[in-house]
UniProtKB/TrEMBL annotation:
This is Methionine--tRNA ligase. It is found in: Cytoplasm. Residues 567-669 form the TRNA-binding domain. It comes from Pendulispora brunnea. Belongs to the class-I aminoacyl-tRNA synthetase family. MetG type 2A subfamily.
């Protein structure tokens, strides 16, 4: 880890800049919460700390999506970027800057970087011909693809690209990169990811196509406006754009004067660990002026399932934060997922952790301690008398917890930091039981009783500091009950707990409502129905176009068990006539159909057909509909009132239909 030893340390931490084809979801919220917690930790220990997030707004994916929605790319990205900008404060994320790649400051900076690389001879013109995944905005080689030319990440067909381009001489940087990784082993973390990067680079780097000529939504190449820059060349540069030009005071955050850490998901490690340092080295930056670290975290699943778009959106982090408070979500994500590894998001696990760690452990410690202070110390801080072995033991637990948590935060391990923090809360709870202040009070030993309570109040004060990076609001609430002002960290002032230093006696405490009221079984059920509707009837996966697409697609798939005739009759299968069909904004697989089932009004059916059919090709077609399936919500007022039958993979579906002229509404039996 590269830390700065002179004066105040500077810590610059960034999230990826998110594509605006999606709205903020639990995956992007995860990265952004971690980065905010790291920012807060460094602020708390007196570092100059700066956080950057923002949006990635160029490229083919966004140009296409804007067209699909009938908007200009600029209008589309303006609208979507706003959703990100407004989302983060709801999660108590306080980024110091928010960068958009369509801003003039960014364009100027990227063009400058381009020129520097060009001057050093690392750009040359040519023609690119190979595969491209629009979802990844990334070039793919034949051997990376899945059968059927599918992108291994998106499972969607890649596109054949043949166009004039500028190539970046990435191959020239193979050896310098390998040397750099060797000299700076903490550049890529965790270690397993570093090994992946090293083995990828060692297997040979091809020159990289860094401009596109087949569309226009990008930053123009200087003096060659028929080329726009490859979106990743443009995007990666954001981390420097946001610190201004050389000489700008913000540049002090960049190495060698500051520590710059890029936190990214494992999906985009290669871009950050290979392309980005190669661009910088090529532009003349020295090794010491490269980012300090790229930390690739794992991917989240939801209730054990891969996050498809519909599933991702079924967990709305903003709604969760509004229902349960941002700190509950922050704590859960930071504590439950080992940072660096894949993890699972589950509402029930979240509520379990809330009740156990926050309610029963920390919350109880607070309410017990303050209740005892009200009873035995007039609701004020009691005087500290002579301490005994139990107090020494707790002070030692506090010292260990604070040292371990500090080290873990510094090593980008929030889960370990919180685990260590909670060892103090558990130790303090055990201490109350062992020290039994109620017994000493009963025996009339108020000096001892007060000593115990003063010890507990100090443990709580330390906890209020150590939870601040993860739970800033709850830290304020905890401190308010302890009669302490909210923390106001300042650069140069280290607030992290050091030693056991009880407060003067006689300061007012302010016992208030429970900090973490228990979520009982009834409240949990109500919350789950509200927050996780996919767990309550509606299927969680991407909108099925068919009753059982996977099984139907494979003749060898195991057949479901036999059902009796009455059960079959319970399924209301009807002939439907498609009256209209349209795309669903921001849901790239879905089409919305109006289907005549012989009823007074056509039914709305949302189906995963968009990869196989153009909307206009479906109008007038007869389909088979399961007419009595429970309505299913896709959010934003979109409700499907039935399901149609089809077979095949989602990009090559065949619709089930009937021969002859069976009128709409005819029942199949
Ligand atoms: O890749 N689990 O943007 P993006 C955990 N614009 N994290 C997840 C996640 C999941 N299931 N899904 C997404 C881009 N993320 C580029 C970045 S940077 C110069 C350009 C998080 O909108 C994770 O941080 O696709 C991942 O790397 C990022 O969102 C991808 O965001």
């Amino acid at each position: 880890m590269r830390a700065i030893s002179r004066g105040v340390n500077r810590f610059y931490v960034t999230t990826p800049i998110y594509y605006v084809n999606d709205i903020p979801h639990v995956g992007t919220a995860y990265t952004t919460i971690v980065v905010d917690a790291l920012r807060r930790f460094h602020l708390l220990v007196g570092d100059e700390s700066r956080m950057l997030t923002g949006t990635d707004e160029h490229g083919l994916k966004l140009e296409r999506q804007a067209h699909e929605e009938g908007k200009t790319p600029q209008a589309f990205v303006d609208e979507m970027a706003e959703r990100f900008r407004q989302a983060w404060p709801v999660l108590d994320i306080e980024n110091d800057d928010f960068i958009r790649t369509t801003e003039p400051r960014h364009k100027a900076y990227v063009q400058d970087l381009w020129r520097r690389i060009e001057e050093r001879g690392d750009l040359y013109e040519g023609e690119y011909e190979d595969w491209y995944c629009v979802g990844c905005e990334s070039y793919k080689t034949e051997k990376e693809l899945l059968p059927g030319n599918l992108c291994p990440i998106h499972h969607k067909p890649v596109e054949r690209v043949k166009e004039k381009t500028f190539f970046f001489r990435l191959s020239r940087w193979e050896k310098p990169l390998l040397d750099f990784y060797e000299r700076n082993p903490s550049f890529v973390e965790p270690a397993s990811r570093r090994n992946e990067v090293i083995s990828f680079v060692s297997s040979g780097l091809r020159d990289l196509s860094v401009s596109r000529t087949s569309f226009t939504w990008g930053i123009p190449v200087p003096n060659r406006p028929e080329h726009v820059m490859y979106v990743w060349f443009d995007a990666l540069t954001n981390y420097l754009t946001a610190l201004g030009k050389e000489g700008d005071p913000l540049r002090r955050y960049w190495p060698p004067n500051g520590r710059a850490v890029h936190v990214v998901g494992k999906d985009i490690l290669r871009f950050h660990a290979i392309y980005w340092p190669a661009f910088l080295l090529s532009a003349g930056y020295t090794e010491k002026e490269l980012p300090s670290q790229v930390f690739a975290h794992g991917f989240l699943t939801v209730d054990g399932q891969k996050m498809s778009k519909s599933l991702r959106n079924a967990v709305d982090p903003l709604r969760l934060a509004r229902e349960l408070g941002p700190d509950t979500l922050r704590y859960y994500l930071l504590r439950a997922i080992a940072f660096g590894q894949d993890g699972d998001f589950s509402h029930t696990a979240l509520i379990e952790r809330y009740n156990a760690d926050l309610g029963k452990n920390l919350g109880n410690l607070l309410s017990r301690t303050l209740g005892l202070c009200v009873k035995f110390s007039d609701g004020k801080t009691p005087p500290m008398g002579e301490i005994g072995p139990l107090e020494r033991e707790l002070a030692e637990a506090a010292a260990n917890a604070s040292a371990a948590a500090r080290a873990a935060w510094d090593e980008l391990a929030p889960h370990r930091a919180l685990e260590a923090t909670w060892t103090l809360s558990s130790a303090a709870n055990a201490y109350v039981d062992k020290a039994a202040p109620w017994a000493s009070a009963k025996a009339g030993d108020m000096v001892r009783t007060h000593t115990i309570l003063a010890t507990l109040l100090e443990a709580l004060r330390q906890l209020s500091v150590m939870i601040w990076p993860a739970m800033p609001k709850k830290s304020d609430g905890l401190r308010a009950q302890l009669g302490l002002a909210p923390l106001a960290p300042k650069a140069g002032e280290d607030l992290w707990p050091k030693g056991f230093t009880p407060r003067p006696a006689g300061e007012p405490l302010a016992l208030a409502a429970a900090l973490f009221p228990t979520i009982d079984k009834d409240a949990e059920a109500a919350l789950l129905t509200k927050l996780a509707p996919h767990m309550h009837g509606a299927p969680a996966a991407e909108a099925p176009a068919t009753a059982a697409p996977a099984a139907a697609a494979s003749p060898a798939a195991e057949a479901p068990p036999a059902i009796n005739y009455d059960t079959f009759l319970g399924v209301d299968l009807r002939v439907g006539l498609v009256k209209t069909a349209e795309r669903v904004p921001r849901k790239d697989k879905l089409l919305k159909l109006a289907v005549d089932l012989g009823e007074a009004e056509p039914r709305t059916i949302i189906a995963g057909l968009a990869l196989s059919f153009k909307p206009e090709d479906l109008v007038g077609r007869k389909i088979i509909v399961v007419a009595n399936l429970e309505p299913r919500s896709f959010g934003k007022g979109l409700v499907s009132q039935g399901m149609l039958l089809a077979t095949g993979p989602s990009e090559a579906l065949h619709l089930a239909t009937v021969e002859g002229d069976a009128p709409p509404g005819s029942r199949l039996k």
